[in-house]
Specification:
The protein has 3 helices and no strands. The protein is an all-alpha fold. It has one domain.
Length: 55
């Protein structure tokens, strides 16, 4: 299960958000701008794949 979480964190460039034993103040200050850009790109790729597959 951890490998899936690690893969997702890496894909969205959020590896430093991995919870270890405590949450630091720095971990609470998250700018998700880059992750949202990646998410939108992944959504587009999935949608394109589905459209191509259903033709």
């Amino acid at each position: 299960m951890n490998s899936r979480i690690e893969t997702l964190l890496k894909k969205f460039k959020l590896e430093d958000r991995w919870y270890k034993n405590s949450i630091t103040e720095e971990q609470l200050k998250i700018n998700y701008y880059e992750a949202y850009k990646i998410l939108e790109n992944e959504r587009k790729k999935a949608k394109d794949f589905l459209i191509r597959s259903l033709k």
